Amino acid sequence: MTTDINNTDISRRRLLQIAGWGSFFVTLGILLGGAVRFLFPRVLFESPSTFKAGFPHEFNVTGAADKNGVFQVYEEWKDEHSAWLVREKNRIYAVHVKCTHKDSAG
């Protein structure tokens, strides 16, 4: 029996075997990729969006209010939490601080 190295005839059975095993390994690779992707959670490692600023009695009303009724704006949390706390006569509220300039670094 002699083998001709230049003989490139492929039978129908051999072609279907190659296609079957190829699709099997492609499917196996996709499943393996999905299983590996499942092991890595999609989470963002960011600082928490809430913080403790203190108790209401720590924000005393001193002096006179301005024309809008604001007694004081506390900027102690501006750098770390991007928030201002505003003290009015009957309430305290927070304002989110965000720079929207195009050339701003932060």
Radius of gyration: 34 Å
Q: Please give the number of β-strands.
A: 3
The secondary structure category is: alpha+beta
Number of helices: 2
Shape: rod-shaped
**Termini, distance in Å?**
77 Å
Q: Low-confidence spans: pLDDT under 50, at least 5 residues?
A: none
Helical content (DSSP H or I, runs of 4+)? 25-40%
Mean pLDDT: 84
Characterize the main sheet. 3 strands, antiparallel
Counted up, domains total: 2
Strand content: 15-25%
Give the ordered list of helices and strands.
Answer: HEHEE
Widest β-sheet, arrangement of strands = 1-2-3
Tags for this entry?
single chain; 106 residues; alpha+beta; 2 domains; three-stranded antiparallel β-sheet; 2 helices; 29% helix; 15% strand
Describe it for me?
This protein is about 30% helix and about 15% strand. The radius of gyration is 34 Å and the shape is rod-shaped. The chain has two domains: about 10-45; about 50-105, no CATH class. It has a three-stranded antiparallel β-sheet with strand order 1-2-3. With about 110 residues, it is an alpha+beta fold.
Topology (SSEs and partners):
Blueprint: H1 12-38, E1 70-74, H2 78-81, E2 83-88, E3 92-96
Antiparallel strand pairs: 1-2, 2-3
Short structural summary:
The chain has 106 residues and is an alpha+beta fold.
